[in-house]
Sequence to fold (644 residues):
Amino acid sequence: MEQNITSSPNLRRVAIDPISRVEGHGKITLLLDDENHIHEARFHIVEFRGFEKFIQGRPYWEVPFLVQRLCGICPVSHQLAAAKAVDQLVGVERLTPTAEKLRRLLHFGQTLQSHALHFFHLSSPDLLFGFGSNPAQRNIVGVLDKYPELALKGVKLRKYGQQVIAAIAGKRIHGTATVPGGMNKILTIAERDALLVDIKDILAWSQDALALNEQIHTANPEHRDFATIRSNFLSMVGSGGELEIYHGGLRARSASGATIFDQFDYRGYQQIIREEVRPWSYMKFPFLIELGKEQGWYRVGPLARVNNCDFISTPLAEAARKRFKEFGQGGFVHDTLAYHWARMIEALHCAEAIYMLLHDDEITGTDLVADLGEKRREGIGVIEAPRGTLFHHYQIDEEGLITKANLIVSTTGNNQAMNESVRSVANAYLDGREITEGLLNHLEVAVRAYDPCLSCATHALGKMPLQVELLDADGMLVDRLTKGGNGVIERTV
Amino acid sequence: MVKLLLFGYGNPGRGDDALGPELIGRIAQLHLADVECQNDMQLQVEHVTDLAACKRVLFIDADISCAEPFDFSEIGAVKDDSYTSHAMSPTALLHAYSQVYGKDAPPAFLLRIRGYDFELGDPLTGKASANLERATEKVRDWLADIQVVRE
Fold:
């Protein structure tokens, strides 16, 4: 397909492959015209394929465990979305109170650790040192050097989230937390008490992280415009309009805040969302049917959720949400870098929610599985994963084998938005015919704001080069930078 | 404190990326005294807390570029810029350990097992399976050398 790109006499191609510090392999192709203006940006995700094929033919009860292998960062999110779909397959409409609370606790733990990873390890180097600072410093080691106390809090926040997961799932990864219609193991009083030991520190550190993000974003006017685009927003909300990441209805609002739909039952998602296939990308482009392909793309994830909800049910996060709304002067905050701010509001919400659940007597209950109902051939589970709304849709045959699967993962939801943000940054920072490290850094900062999960967990040593290529209108190589797995950058023209 | 931490990482659902966890599974079945077997999808900075609880560590990973069938080496802390994903290199993790705890990390070794194909849903390739057998023998011999015994 890239041959087609360069076949136009007026376009030049800039390829950046892959984006560093995001999961797996990505590539950006910038299409230039003869005047070196960006005509189009294409953010390729080259490994994002095969999910549905991977699942087809497997028994439905295996699916929540199989899908944990889709992603090394959010395996719990996939497990929970699949588990919700499986609940429907076995005719369960409502879990027992303990089972639902355990699933929520699991999800809060997962989201907390994922958000902590993103901020402390991936984005804080950019935010603390500046986008154009020395790359040798702009990483977690640099943060550990210069801000050791902050970095250590990040390590411990992430560790705590994983302890929550391990306590509920039985082990750190690939645990067997869910079963059709419920949960597999109780949370013992000893396990709960162990989690209570550090929860006040976790709350305090989450507040510190939020304060830092808020201060950085509000004190740097250039952050407002960087990679910023106006978009529709899609997220789940609770029945009262509150922030909700486990179960609720779908809400979509336009860039100006007008409601497109609200409290929509996600089991009918195919009535409101369609996925467009484009020949140059493995990843589909979802859009809101009502607005059409051109206008219907949207953003998901923390920025969408915090913008879209009417309130947050925990007090500290709600106070933070109000400040966020004040910053947006009552309207939506469209700043792409405000994803980081919104992410930390959610991290604080997770910490508060964990605190509350650990003090809820039902969390250590023993009634874990609901009565199974009439089996169904179709199940659709949706949750708000750390990076955004996650859809799992399965159909089964008489023997319970998966005949059809459709997954819309969070990164897919932000597909068009990432392209738009990349185009915005490239327009601002590409200068002439040379790929500069500065351009690369700025593109990475834009992509990282969305925290895309690209290949979902393959990372074998030696597979992480970073290459930047500039080709002229005839497809000839003009410039190329290669960034090795050790961070060393070489010009190889 | 455990004497030895065996830490395999990789995604068991992605072909030869499963080499690390596969080997860990085999060693765990030996029920060795004072040995902790851990695995995870990726190596990350919070794993410094696992290192804090051991006297020696062996990292085990799939590698698409090392010599066949495996490469075994002692490694040290390196301040590098390998933070190119949601994952860290083991040498960078050792460096992070010294930053977090203000002292040197425990002696560390890295076993890289040659892999070939990392597609989602694929099993280990035949060549990787053969390399895994050889690597398992190597780990057993190494454990005997350092006098790790069965429980």
